Automatic annotation (TrEMBL):
It comes from the Bacteria. Residues 1-58 form the HTH lysR-type domain. Residues 289-308 are annotated as: Disordered. Residues 299-308 have a biased composition (Basic and acidic residues). Belongs to the LysR transcriptional regulatory family. This is LysR family transcriptional regulator. It holds the Pfam family HTH_1. PROSITE patterns: HTH_LYSR. Keywords: Transcription, Transcription regulation. It comes from Pseudomonas citrulli.
């Protein structure tokens, strides 16, 4: 007995009428009656009492009805599962966006990723570069936006015309002498921080060498650096926009520019798709001419300034 026959028998139970059940089943009364007779013959007992008023369940039929209903429920669940398995399974693509970059940039990145990878269910998170790097290594993230030099552990693609502008910042006045600045507490980037190489260039730009007596503390994030500069009356490296937003003075005659890169931790993603992602243009970006300065350690002109 197949599931279709079971459904037809349950319609007889629900309607109490052979003709009404036949109509719902898109069968003739004779065809449905033949199905019922065949089932009762297989079981060896009657399921229904026939009368002029219709069909009612026998005691055996009443005991079988719950089991017939369970079989139909299980059959429907099986059919739904089979249908779901026939469809291509949508995979999840985990992407770590970067909080150092502006909200507008991240929004455009989200739109771009949705357009380029429609076959994936996208899962986004926001953090700074060091945490994003950890997500690639330890949390099986597929893509991450990183700042700074390429990572040897992962394939990376530079995003054209997108850079972070790094400056030295402190709580004093912009015209403070180098002597006053040299006495400040140094908030130095941790070695693995993307600003670490910039800090060495920053020292070369005018603060000189410091011995073991120099007061310093290490920071692993821009958010922490901003807090320590304020709390300790310190001096450290942050993005220019973060310094301005937090009311910090900027060390004169120094800027460094760090690349923004898309790090890839999924070999299944095609190279063309990835390049479509990084070919992102900020339509409302500000065009700036960047003049060379005596202590500036870059010769590039910046086409788009990243705001934090």
């Amino acid at each position: 007995m197949d599931s279709r026959t079971l459904r037809n028998l349950m319609r007889i139970v629900q309607t109490g009428s052979l003709s009404a059940a036949a109509e719902h089943s898109c069968l003739t009364v004779q065809a449905l009656a033949a199905q019922l007779n065949k089932v009762e013959e297989q079981f060896g007992f009657r399921l229904f009492r026939r009368s002029n008023k219709g069909l009612t369940l026998t005691s055996q039929g009443s005991e079988l009805t719950p089991f017939m209903d369970q079989v139909l429920v299980a059959t429907r669940q099986l059919e739904e599962k089979v249908a779901a398995l026939k469809k291509p399974r949508q995979r999840t693509l985990k992407v770590a966006l970067n909080t150092t970059l502006p909200a507008e940039f991240n929004r455009r990145m989200i739109d771009r990723l949705i357009a380029v990878f429609p076959q994936y269910q996208l899962e986004f998170s926001y953090a700074e570069s060091m945490e994003n790097l950890s997500k690639l290594k330890n949390e099986d993230f597929d893509l991450a936006i990183l700042i700074g030099a390429p990572q040897s552990s992962f394939s990376t693609i530079a995003m054209p015309d997108v850079q972070v502008r790094v400056v030295g910042a402190h709580c004093g006045d912009e015209d403070d002498s180098l002597g006053l600045l040299g006495d400040k507490f140094q908030v130095r980037p941790a070695e693995e921080c993307p600003y670490s190489h910039s800090f060495l260039r920053f020292l070369d730009a005018g603060l000189g060498e410091y011995g073991t007596s120099q007061r310093m503390v290490y920071s692993c994030s821009e958010t922490l650096t901003l807090s320590l500069i304020t709390q300790l009356d310190g001096l450290g490296l942050v993005s220019r926009e973060a310094a301005l937003r937090n009311g910090l003075a900027i060390f004169p005659d120094f800027e460094d520019f760090l690349e923004v890169r898309l790090a890839v931790n999924n070999p299944e993603l095609s190279g063309q798709s990835l390049h479509d992602v990084v070919d992102l243009r900020l339509q409302e970006r500000t065009e700036r001419d960047v003049r060379r300065r005596a202590h500036r350690h870059t010769e590039k002109q910046v086409a788009a300034e990243i705001r934090t």
